[in-house]
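Dear support,

I submitted the protein below through the web form. The confirmation email said the job was done, but the results page showed an empty box. After a refresh the structure appeared. I'm attaching both so you can tell me whether what I see now is the final result or a partial one.
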Amino acid sequence: MKRIKKRVINTAALGLALLVTPTLTYRSAINTYAQAALTADEEAKIQEFLATEPQNNDTINLGKVKVDQPTTGYTFPGVNNYTSLFKTRGQKITLDKDYEFTIDNGDHAGKTVKVKDWANVKGYLVNSMSDSEPEFENGLDKYMFTDEVTLIDQADGSAFTVKNAVLSLEGEEGYRMFDSLWTDRYVFDLPVEAGDTRFQPEIEDASLIPLYGNGYWTLHATVTEMVPYETIVKIDESLKTGEVEEDVAGVLGSKAGKYDIMYSPYEDLPGDTYKQYTSDVIYADLLENVDTEPAVNDMLSKPWGDATVTNFTSSPATNRVLRVGIDYTHFVTEDGTPVTVSGTNVDKKFGLKDKENFEGYEYVTTRTEANGDRVHVYKKIVETPAEPENTPAPVTPETPAQPEAPAPVTPETPAQPEAPAPVTPETPAQPEAPVPATPDTPVQPVASATVAPAVQSTPKTGDAGLFTSAFMLFTGMIGSVGAFVTKKKNSK
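What the results page shows now:
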């Protein structure tokens, strides 16, 4: 069956702002709803419930709704101001003769008495109190009810007063069937008025009531009680804080019972004690009984009499169900996982809270979820690991500088070696005749030539001049040796 949803409206929300607990936001004041406004007491109970930080699906019973029971608009006027329904029905009369009576009951039973100042005694004709027109069989059975009368004992002349007395009078034909006088017949002063529509009297024959003290009449009553429904509050985290939806509207139940009442406290209650059992008291007793859902023919006995259940019907109440929203505050990382402190996840918090600082995390942003929850997002701080103590910090090598290209050295032009001055040989002395000897074959002088280097290479800087000088010196020496040898040869 489709759930009935109604948005709750509460006109008293602003007046209850001081009841909102610190865990709630400005939306905590209950919103308004269309069917029946929350009472101040109901809203206060909801706020107290929310202050306990309930979880999703937690429930609380706010109790029964206050119900005004059906009324007829009638108000009982009080024990000193009412008029019994019997008196309203009865014809007012005055005692017509100086009768002699025999008291039939009570403390003065058996005494023969007369009425003091009889001509001024007024009362009600009992026979006229019946539903039908009074009937006098052969002019007999005529009775008068009076609230109070003073009697004179014919034996000793003493006087005493009795209340709620019924006097037997002569009939229409002047015949008197009984000379009886009954006391304490206060059924005729029953504290139920004719205007009280909660009760419907049925008086078959009022003339028989004095003889038997009761009977031959019935008081009917229909008692209806409206059964209050209860209001159940259920937490729903899919709703936002302050949102209330009515899933089930409350419906009052009812109980109705019908009773036949036999008002019979006669001769059991002294004086005016019976007057305490007013129509309000009787109805309250019946209302209490109908709440027990009695069965037909059950008997209820009270000091004012008995009541028999003649009918009973009932319909149960339908409890009202409200869903109340709540919000949480979450602390998560950028990937949605909870923030962790000392190896423990940071739990969500009830209500809407401000962001917090956590070691090792940097706050990023805050967002609001569709259900009203508040989410604070953080990211981890990446830290450079600390260096061990007494360990020199590694030196980051510098980027080597680009070596400069050596500047090319221009070799110096070697100086032209000076030609050695020719030595003029001395004129040798006339040698002794030498022993002829075979001269050695002269060594062919090595031709002066440039020696090619074995490997062609670029001379190193600073070596070119040295090499050239050495080469020229060497060539010069060879040249000198050559010249010397030639000269010596020629001299021979």
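Response: this is the final, complete result; the empty box was a page-load delay. The chain is about 10% helix and 30% strand.
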